[in-house]
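Example S7 (structure tokens).
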């Protein structure tokens, strides 16, 4: 049986499972705490020990839902890694003081966000904290000071970013140690392959995390020309492989030499299994370029 063995994100960085479970939509699953705990346990059985969160998910509710489940089996905390993100302010009932959607990467906001995440998740530490999106007003020295203080206090063990440009990543990395960059990548969104993001990850030996690897379901239901074209290509490969289309997609992502960690944002145990199964299905370069060409709508130059 395939299992998602842990990997080191970067030299001296944390060890996360190669497949990560995403909790973004947990508030819409309509589950009891026991059902949420069952999902966590099913992921752990597959070797998926890392769970991706953000303070804003579910209008600031998802971390609490996960924490309620974890409270039923607190011993599981030592078997899993908790990732969260901060830096976006949403207008939500849980944050009545927010007047409009905005970014905040100030020292006070980062520290307060972490304290709240620890309370909601019912844990004493985050294994990894990411700045959720680049803030035009980000003061790299101030962010580094917040990271350093949180690290010294043992409240966050490692740090990274999400959705940054390579230049923005380099700026913050010049002030503090970053261990990963979480970016969007799928056969329908390939910008990170060509804008320097994954080149930088390879250069720094800093494995990226990938969000929306199935393009938010558009790979299966999208009716635009690109989605239809890519779906036909993936289905043809899946028929040759005798495997689900999702497994083919994850194999395509895992083939990249930056050694990315895809995030599976589904409540279905079989969806997590299909991602884990891709670890045993290495994709050759011609097949990888077959998918790329379908996505780009042309052959490589």
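Recovered sequence:
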């Amino acid at each position: 049986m395939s299992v998602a063995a842990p990997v080191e994100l970067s030299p001296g960085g944390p060890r996360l499972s190669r497949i990560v479970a995403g909790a973004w939509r947990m508030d819409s699953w309509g589950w009891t705490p026991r059902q949420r705990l069952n999902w966590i346990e099913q992921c752990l059985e597959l070797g998926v020990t890392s769970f991706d969160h953000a303070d804003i998910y579910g209008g600031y509710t998802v971390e609490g839902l996960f924490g309620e489940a974890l409270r039923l089996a607190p011993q599981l905390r030592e078997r899993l890694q908790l990732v969260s993100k901060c830096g976006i302010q949403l207008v939500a009932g849980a944050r009545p003081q927010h007047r409009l959607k905005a970014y905040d990467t100030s020292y006070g906001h980062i520290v307060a966000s972490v304290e709240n995440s620890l309370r909601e998740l019912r844990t004493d530490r985050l294994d990894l904290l990411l700045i959720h999106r680049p803030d035009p007003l980000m003061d790299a020295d101030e962010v580094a000071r917040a990271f350093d203080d949180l690290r010294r206090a043992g409240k966050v063990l490692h740090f990274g970013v999400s959705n940054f440009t390579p230049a923005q990543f380099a700026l913050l990395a010049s002030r503090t140690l970053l261990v990963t960059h979480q970016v969007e990548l799928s056969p329908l969104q390939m910008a990170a392959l060509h804008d320097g993001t994954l080149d930088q990850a390879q250069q720094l030996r800093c494995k990226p995390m990938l969000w929306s690897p199935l393009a938010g379901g558009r790979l299966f239901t999208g009716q635009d020309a690109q989605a239809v074209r890519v779906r036909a290509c993936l289905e043809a490969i899946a028929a040759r492989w005798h495997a689900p289309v999702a497994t083919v997609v994850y194999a395509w992502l895992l083939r990249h030499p930056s050694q990315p960690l895809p995030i599976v944002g589904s409540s279905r145990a079989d969806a997590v299994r299909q991602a884990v199964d891709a670890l045993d299905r290495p994709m050759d370069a011609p097949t990888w370029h077959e998918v790329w060409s379908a996505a780009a709508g042309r052959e490589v130059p």
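Notes on this example. The CA atoms of residues 270 and 276 lie 10 Å apart.
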